[in-house]
Amino acid sequence: MVTYPVVVYKDEESDYGTVVPDLPGCVSAGASLSIAMEMTNEAVQCHLEGMGQRW
């Protein structure tokens, strides 16, 4: 299983945002950190499927 680093950011008036630097264009967000990470996992899976790779 491959793991990817995730950059998490949050401003005072926004949800948590995430970026996966090793997968350009792979971003996500969520109202809580746990939701943001769940959504990021799904985004990585979709991104890799779109590239024709299995996660």
Descriptors for this entry?
single chain, 55 residues, alpha+beta, three-stranded antiparallel β-sheet, 1 helix, 3 strands, 20% strand, elongated
Characterize the biggest β-sheet.
Answer: 3 strands, antiparallel
Number of helices: 1
The end-to-end span amounts to 7 Å
Low-confidence segments, ≥5 residues, pLDDT <50?
Answer: none
Kindly name the structural category: alpha+beta
Q: What is the number of strand segments? A: 3
> Shape from CA axes?
elongated
> What is the rounded Rg?
11 Å
Order of helices and strands: EEEH
Give the strand content. 15-25%
How many separate domains?
1
Helix content: 25-40%
Average pLDDT across residues? 94
Secondary-structure topology with pairs:
Layout: E1 7-9, E2 16-19, E3 27-30, H1 33-50
Summarize the structure in words.
This protein has one domain. 33% of the residues lie in helices and 20% in strands. It has 1 helix and 3 strands. A 3-stranded antiparallel β-sheet has the order 1-2-3, with helices on one face. A hairpin with a 7-residue loop joins strand 2 and strand 3 (27-30).
Summed up, what is this model?
The protein has 55 residues and is α+β, with helices and mostly antiparallel strands. It has one domain. The chain contains one helix and three strands, in the order βββα.
